[in-house]
């Protein structure tokens, strides 16, 4: 089959029932590029599942990992995401997520500008919490601090996901640049996350997450 490569990922893609997130460790930028090249080449050889709508590859700006984010028209089996990564890579087990809320920036034009920075954060859902309730509380705290407009320079959108088992939250955002996102984190979110007691899903990681660059997005628009 022929895989169609899009210029940019569409996170809030219509008709998507679930997304699978897979992270592959890397030892630096060169290793990261090698992994991403192999992953994207694998997509071209793949006999794509009928329910797979799109898959995107992102590289951590610090060279520590490659993130594979796939979007499915029907709820996939957890092992389905494994077909998107070629054999031989130490990929983590995929996690299934449902997109709960997309929050656009208040000053974003139509069409939006290209995103060159994709911040990613994974939060633990604590016992007694719900993932959706946690997201609602985080956004309410943001609005109380900074207002509802969210007219942040360079902020395009934040896509808030809840894991299928309701144990984690996955936030995938779109920003014009790393510098503008860094300024936003320092101004708004460092204090809010500390005050709310929010912790990263992975022990030892900051709650503010990591920044990624987009490597490639493929769709099944051309078969």
Can you tell me about this structure?
The protein is α+β, with helices and mostly antiparallel strands and 223 residues long. It has two domains: 4-97 and 213-219, Alpha-Beta Plaits (2-Layer Sandwich); 99-211, Alpha-Beta Plaits (2-Layer Sandwich), CATH 3.30.70.100. It is built from three helices and nine strands. Strands 2-4-3-9-6-8-7-5 form an eight-stranded antiparallel barrel. A hairpin with a 4-residue loop joins strand 7 (155-163) and strand 8 (168-175). Helix 2 (131-146) crosses helix 3 (178-196). The model has no long low-confidence stretch (mean pLDDT 92).
CATH topology of the largest domain: Alpha-Beta Plaits
Distance between the termini: 5 Å
Biggest sheet: strands, sense, closure? 8 strands, antiparallel, barrel
Extract low-pLDDT stretches.
none
Return the structural class: alpha+beta
Question: Helical percent range?
Answer: 10-25%
Count of distinct strands: 9
Assign an overall shape.
globular
**What is the assembly state of the chains in this entry?**
single chain
Radius of gyration: 17 Å
Mean pLDDT: 92
Instruction: State the order of secondary-structure elements, H for helix, E for strand.
Output: EEHEEEEHEEHE
Determine and state the CATH class of the largest domain.
Answer: Alpha Beta
Number of domains: 2
